Each structure stands twice: as C-alpha cells, then as structure tokens.
Amino acid sequence: MTSSPDQAPVVADLSETELIASFAPLLPRGRATLVPTGDDAAVVAAPDGRFVVSTDVLVEGHHFRRDWGTARDVGARAAAQNLADIAAMGALPTSMVVGLVLPPTTPVAWLLDLARGLAEECAPLGVGVDGGDLSAGERVVVAVTVHGDLEGRAPVLRSGARPGHVLAHAGALGRAAAGYAVLEAGLPYTGDPDTAAVVGAFLRPAPPYAAGPQAADAGATAMMDVSDGLVRDAGRMARASGVEILLDPVAEALAPDLARLEPVARRLGADAAAWLLTGGEDHGLLATFAPDRPLPPGFRRIGTVRAAGPAGPRVVPSPADAAHVTAPGWDHFRA
Amino acid sequence: MTSSPDQAPVVADLSETELIASFAPLLPRGRATLVPTGDDAAVVAAPDGRFVVSTDVLVEGHHFRRDWGTARDVGARAAAQNLADIAAMGALPTSMVVGLVLPPTTPVAWLLDLARGLAEECAPLGVGVDGGDLSAGERVVVAVTVHGDLEGRAPVLRSGARPGHVLAHAGALGRAAAGYAVLEAGLPYTGDPDTAAVVGAFLRPAPPYAAGPQAADAGATAMMDVSDGLVRDAGRMARASGVEILLDPVAEALAPDLARLEPVARRLGADAAAWLLTGGEDHGLLATFAPDRPLPPGFRRIGTVRAAGPAGPRVVPSPADAAHVTAPGWDHFRA
After folding, report:
1. Lowest mean pLDDT, pick from A11-25, A287-301, B173-187, B222-236
2. Burial (Cβ within 10 Å: 0-12, 13-18, ≥19) of residue A189
3. What are phi and psi of A134, to 5 degrees?
4. Which of A71, A96, A189, B178 could form a disulfide with A110 if both were Cys (CB 3.0 to 4.6 A apart)?
5. Can you give the pLDDT at residue B1?
6. Which residues in chain A (16-35) have CB-CB distances under 8 A to chain B?
7. Which candidate from B11, B143, B157 shows the least CB-CB separation from A39?
8. Within 13 Å and on the Cβ side, how many CA atoms surround B43?
9. Number of H helices, E strands in chain A
10. What is the CB neighbour count within 10 angstroms for residue A213?
11. How confident is the model over B260-309, as pLDDT tens digits?
C-alpha cells in the first residue's frame, strides 16, 4: 500500500489481481453464463444458434462527469445504454463484458461502486457480467459489449419501415436531455421533484427492455433505440428503410411528456419541445408497425411512414414543431 | 470542413456518419456474420449453441505509442491480442466489435489505417468486424471484443493442469519484450535484421491461432495465452489448477529463442533470458498435456506439472534461471 493508512485506497495501491478479486464477487453470473469471467474468455449459451452483439464506449468528460453522479450511476448507465441496443433488435440480453480504463488515482471505492451499478442493471434481467479488462489511462473509459438471445425470432432491423406503417415509441423522451441541461447549468435540483427526476433520468436511463421482444412478437417491422434524439434517429430509420417518416405534433402525440418537462424548461428558460424532439440518451424504443396491428404495451403512436418523395428518404417533423428542431442531435466529434 | 484545404482532414472535420461511411467498407464481413454492422446490434452465428467472448482495451501511451508504429500496426495488434484469447480456449474466432475513442485532432487517414490493420488480422481468419462505436476523447483507446466458436469442443480452461502433465508452449516468447526495449531505448533498428524483427514482433504479434483448436483436439488439459510473461502467466495457471508448475531451464528448452534474442540483448546491455521468462505481449499459447500424448504441431515442452507443495500452487523457474526472474511480469497500474 502506497497510500497512508488514513487515506482511502486508490487503484494504484492494489495489484491488478487484487483489484479483480475485489470487484469480481460483485458481478452477477447470468442465466446464459456457461464459463464465467476468470479464464482467457467466457463461454455463453446461444440456444438458437445465433447471438446478438453491440458495443458502446463511455468517456469521462464526454459521456459522464464523476462530479455529477455516483459510480453506481455510471455503471448502471453504461449497462443500460448497451442493453437497450439488444432490446432494439427484439432480443433478450444475456451477457456483458466490460473494458475499463482507470486513472491510477481512482479510488478503489469508485471502482467497486461502478461494479455495483453494472450489477444493479444486469442482475434483474438475468444478464451476466462475464468478462472484462482493466487498464491504466488518463481518463475513465467504460467500454461495454453486450450480447442477446433472439429466442428464435427474426432480428428487427432499422430497414423494415414501409409506407403506411405507424411509427410508435416506448419509454422516455427528452428527459435525459433535460437532466443534462440542469447539470450543465449547475441548477440546484435536489429540492425540486420535477428537476430531480430529469437529472435521475440522465444519470440512470430506464430503457423499456421488455418492450423490445414484445414489439418483435407484435410484428414490429423496424426498430431501434433512440440514443441521439428522436429526429436524428428517426432520420436514420427513414434512410435505412428508404422511406419518409412524418412525426405527429409533439403537443398532441407526446402531451403528457411535454407537460412533465415544462416546469423544468421554465426554470432553465429552455424549450421542452426541443428536448422531446432532439434530446438523446433516454434509450427508448422507436418502432414501426403495420397499421392494422394493435400497438404492444408501452408503445404510443408518434408518426407515420410514407413513400420517400423527391427529397429522398428523410424524417419530417410536424410543421407545428419546425421551430423546435434547431439541432438535429448529438455528434460526438462536433458537439 | 474546419481544416484548410491543404491540411489533411482530421476526425473533427467529418460527422460521425461520414467517418463511419469512410471506414466501414474497409472492414471484413465474417463467415459467421448474419447481420453486419449498421443496425443497433449485429447478429452472429453460434452453430453449436454457445459462443466464446473476450475483451481487451489498448490505451495510447500505455499499450502503444502513435510515434512507434503505424495505425495499421495498432489495429493488427489490438485484433491479435484478442484473437489469441479465443484460440486459448480451443475455439475458432468468428466475430469482433471495436469501440474507439479518438481525439478530435486524429487524422482521418490514421483511423482508416487502423481499420485496415484490424482487417488484415481478421480477414484471413474469416473473422468479421461486425460492429463498433466511435467517441471523442483525449487519448486514443481501442476496446476490442472478440467472439469464437468451439465447434462442439469443450473449452480448455486454465484450471485443468494435473500432476504429471507436460507444460508446452507454441509461438514466440520474449520477442515483443525485446522489441519494446529497443523502442523505449530509442535504438535505431531498421538497419539490423535481428533488431527490426523484434520491433516487428512487438508492433504486430503473431499468435499461433490454429494451434489453439489443434491443442484442444490433441487433448490439452489446460491452456491460456501468454500476455503478461511466461512466469506470471504460468503462475496463474498453477493457481487456477491448484498445482506446482516447474519450468525447464530456458538455455535447454528455449535454446533457439535465446540465441535469436542474444544479439539484441547485447546491443542493449539487456538480459535475453529475462525477456523469455518475464516478457509479455507475444500471445503464444501455454498448455498442458497428459505425458503419454504426443504434442501437437508447434508446441514445445518447456516444463512439468507436479502436486503443490507446502508453499501452495505456484510456478517454479529452473534454479539455473532464478537470477533472470527479477520482475514477475507486467502490472498495468504499478508498472
């Protein structure tokens, strides 16, 4: 131990083996885990002979700030945004591996809390944290790869939206963006329930995991998670499908969401409808369904699909909302 | 474009969509790829109802330096060290996903070369680069997750070494450590074939991928890749198996390897035997076999397994080599 006894230990005080021994017991084994973490690789069940895989990286100072929330929040959020990608294919998440870059001065307690956050999001879903890697670096980086089981379903891609289909959404919209705006403005939030709730939505998004496989079973023709904002992600779906997607006016389609965001928007002098249309990181599910199909639980109709016009495949917000769509969504390098 | 026309473009000059469009065509689709990169997640075949998964992170300034080698080297090395983990389970690698953190000032050409390096290592093995994520950050981070197919085999774990078994190794030992020492010393190397070869071994390790499944088929009882040095990794195998592992004298068991390293060691005033015993990053395969079994192609006997003594499970270098084992191997946080 290089730290004095009265200081909290940092990761440089422990060997890699000691660090792994300290957090490995906190990580859940999943229902599909055959050989867990600890060998060169883990072995995971893929009962239908396929697996779904997605990866996402969170970088300190870009995707999270250590002074904005706890390490549990960072772990839960890193897990949630990846698990949402699996749900968006119509699959059940089964297994996760996590690559971590940590500055040597990171408190060991922060690392353990990160592991607890990962576990809090994974364990209730039966997802194992089945492997990982630890490295030193200047900033914390959390690189998560998550796997899922389609249970025999066909994967639901972004490219299946067809003219006449209904566009629907499950989960939150605009709430993480509102929370981010509160934190960035340094606005006190613990005393105000509306404000505290959106900060919580940013620090710990709650994707509607079960809605993914349910949507697939209900005949979803296209699906994706909304990570970069409704307008930007619906635009991606439109281009992948070669269609035009028309969004309904948010004041009608998303009236309750708008009403819940407005008190926070007023405190900040911000635009609640813009959060709904362009705010990312809530990781709800955007899907299309044939018009004769009832929407599965949790989904709300927010638009329609029609053939692409002379302008080509694109998303078209309601004319009533045009003034709220100024930024098309997040770009990691140009934000 | 924010750069002037006579400057090479950097990643901040392109949108994330443009960047992805620029490198995606360079990435191979694998023989197991069912739905490639471009959706929320990829879908990969797992014919025997299981998959093997491992993850590793490379951090600029810790695992590589951009002024030491090309981006192709970085990409190939990131792929190789992960693919070796799959081979070490006795599996065939099938699919990779890559999370990238890039400073906004990274030349686009560097990113494209990184993709080429990944492809050069993956394509000959039929491995697809099936997904990824791009984020901005202060230093380059390459987070690779790789998957493999056991083709019906039982995974070969670290924990199967039993008293009486033979310890064997396939691939290079000490060469990457020698190359690292050359680069760190700033020694010129292009004019000297021995020195250039070890630098090449550090920049682009060449794990014996095929030897992994072959060892499994030949009855390997334990296996792992040597990423942190022979003594340290054999110690891990000993502890996982609850045995003592005795290493043969390197001057006998690894005489040709020693002879090839000695000219470089002399130039640096370094210890070639220490590179063999404690140098990591060559990603050869360490395996144990029952004594009555012939070793599969590429494996050389380098030690024996016996029951753990009063000191408990451990690795014991030959008494002839004790003076060469000063550092037990790499620790990411305390090195």
Report:
1. A11-25
2. buried
3. -120, 130
4. A71
5. 42
6. 16, 19, 34-35
7. B157
8. 21
9. 10, 12
10. 23
11. 999 999 999 999 999 999 999 999 999 999 999 899 999 999 999 999 99
Domain-wise residue ranges, chain B: 11-149, 158-324
The whole-number pLDDT of residue A327 equals 61
Is B1 within 8 Å of chain A by CB? no
Q: Is the confidence at residue A312, as pLDDT, over 80?
A: yes
Q: How many CA atoms lie within 13 A of A164 on its CB side?
A: 4
β partners of residue B288:
B167, B222
Q: CA-based angle A312:A316:A319, to the nearest 5?
A: 140
The answer to whether residue A101 neighbours chain B at the CB level (below 8 Å) is: yes
Predicted confidence band at B331 (pLDDT cuts at 50, 70, 90)? low
Mean pLDDT of chain A: 94
Say whether A55 and B132 touch across the interface (CB within 8 A).
yes
Task: Give the residue on B whose Cα is nearest the Cα of A132.
Answer: B55
Cβ–Cβ pairs < 8 A, chains A and B:
243
Task: Mark which residues 110-129 of B lie under 8 Å from A by CB.
Answer: none
Task: Please tell me whether the interface predicted TM-score (ipTM) of this complex is above 0.95.
Answer: no
Token digits of residue A97: 């591996």
Domain A158-324 listed as CATH 3.90.650.10: yes
CATH class of B11-149: alpha beta
Q: How many helices (H) and strands (E) does chain B have?
A: 10, 12
pLDDT of the residue at A328? 56
Using a CB–CB cutoff of 8 Å, tell me whether A55 touches chain B: yes
